[in-house]
Amino acid sequence: MYREGKSKPSYSRVSLSHSTNPNLSLSLSLSLCVKMSDYLPRETLINILTRLPAKTLLRFRCICKSWLSLFSSPDFTSAHLRTAAAKPPLLLLRGYSLTGLTPRYKELYSLRSDDADFTSLLDLHCPFNTRTANFFRVVGSCNGVICLSDDLLGYTYTVILWNPAIRRYLTLPMPNICFEDYGPYMFSLGFGFDPKTNDHKVVRIVYLEGSGRVKGWVVPPKVEVYALSTGVWKTLKGSKIGYHMVEVFWSSAFANGGVHWTAYSGGKSTGYCNVVLVFDMGSEVFREVKLPEKLVGASPLDLAVTGYKDTISIFQYDKRGPYCCTGFTVWVMKEYGVEESWGKLFTGSLNGGVSTVLGFRKSGEVVVEKWDGTLVSCQPGKIKKMRIRGGKESFYLGTYAESLILLDEGKCVQTEDNGSSDEVDSAGNAFVARSLEKNSLRHHLFAATALNP
Length: 453
Hints:
- Helix content is 18%, strand content 36%.
- The protein is of the alpha+beta class.
């Protein structure tokens, strides 16, 4: 995917035959599996099967009807996911190609090892295109499913759940609250998992535009939830949210069964009051988490939330805006749910400026996109170049674990699997770079205006 000057290691593969003929190898593998299923106890067989890659299990569905049914069952899907989650975590990296080598500039996804070299293990072909010459917002990644939203420009309703391991996707239906019926609005999304019901959900918070004496976005917003188990949007009633979210630059993080956003009340003239707003995926109820005192009155534009191990973290930018931001501060809630446990992890600054702070590595280092679209890994007193560059503010970093989710609900997609590797060119394309810079400037100015109605 990215130019790094090294050959790409591949995933380890389970091989049930030493034959050099792929078709013969698969045939022998299937025959061996059929014989195993006749003699092994069911529990032992399932224990073996849950350790296989998702791609292999897809091929094994043709063995017999009982296996086809087994692999689609929620219990097997959950067991397979638990096995995958127990392995060393992978990191999902998304960037936007600046090369003009293809008919269309691409969103480039790759799975990375969280080792010292940030080794690229596998490139994921993204089969989707936005309605404009832009890229999708990655709402989040949970249990091997990536939630994408085409919302960076204009009113669109395209939200996609995508499982690249099994090459299946689901486009969510039209939401209940749309421009045609309600007029102008601003919205935020969250994506996560309800462990009580084994259900994946998307929550949509919609702020309608005020009229008359009411200016800006109206609170409380309207809220609707999509559940994978039902396949429909459900409008929630009684959600008395008294906070706004930052237009365009909102971020969300799924942790401990809830989706988290930074939100605010007040304004520049009266003073801001910032909190972390949490939506519990099980109870479908909102709650608030207090921020450290130093962050309560900060500009909402300077705050972003992300996950950190089993808890959450806040990135505070040094005056984020349309012009170069030079530094950031990382805050961590050391014990989830205990507001007194908030602490400052470290403060960093970069020559050349900070565009976006992306997230953490297992070492505690923070991955940061610089103003020129290059990535660096930061820790106190040390900055390491990562030799990766892409479109400005197009990067996303999250954890990834392979799963079988969407096997039944999703549609199959055709992917490029020719062994070729797309790159984010370090030279880039001047026209695309200027376009992304222009979009970034407009987004910053729009968000700043929204905070000062």
